[in-house]
Design goal:
alpha+beta, Aminopeptidase, 4 helices, 5 strands
């Protein structure tokens, strides 16, 4: 049975404990991320929370760091295991890419180790010229 879902950008609705628990303990990319780091990343991002209306519970999350003009970096995208494989991740990414405040952004970027197929459906490709990209990592 199809679930009634809602996606919200209202940060006051984010279940911080849920997001922190998933990122810090379940995700491969944010293992060990502190609650304070999650709070700060949410405060400084455009956030998208996925809710199941029937239970009024949060089942997914994503955030975008952006200047709303040049670049938008999509991060921390997830749907809980119980709801994976039902197209809800697609709904979340579609909502991000079609958000009115992001329509004038020149480009979107992201990193993934396991969801290339999802993002290819939305036109994402590997960076064609990685030699021109630079990165400085401050934390291990």
């Amino acid at each position: 049975m199809e679930q009634a879902l809602e996606i919200s950008t209202d940060k006051d609705r984010i279940n911080l404990e849920f997001v922190h628990r998933y990122l810090s303990y379940t995700s491969y990319w944010a293992k060990g991320r502190s609650l304070e780091d999650v709070k700060q990343s949410i405060a400084n991002s455009l956030c998208f929370s996925l809710f199941c209306k029937a239970s009024n519970s949060q089942i997914g999350f994503a955030r975008v760091a952006t200047d709303y003009v040049v670049f938008a970096w999509i991060m921390d995208v997830f749907v809980t295991d119980e709801f994976k494989g039902k197209g809800y991740g697609k709904m979340l990414v579609n909502q991000i890419l079609n958000h009115p405040d992001l329509q004038n952004v020149n480009g979107f970027g992201l990193r993934t180790s396991d969801a290339h197929g999802l993002y290819r459906q939305f036109g994402f490709t590997k960076i064609p010229d990685p030699e021109t990209w630079m990165f400085k990592k401050n934390k291990p």
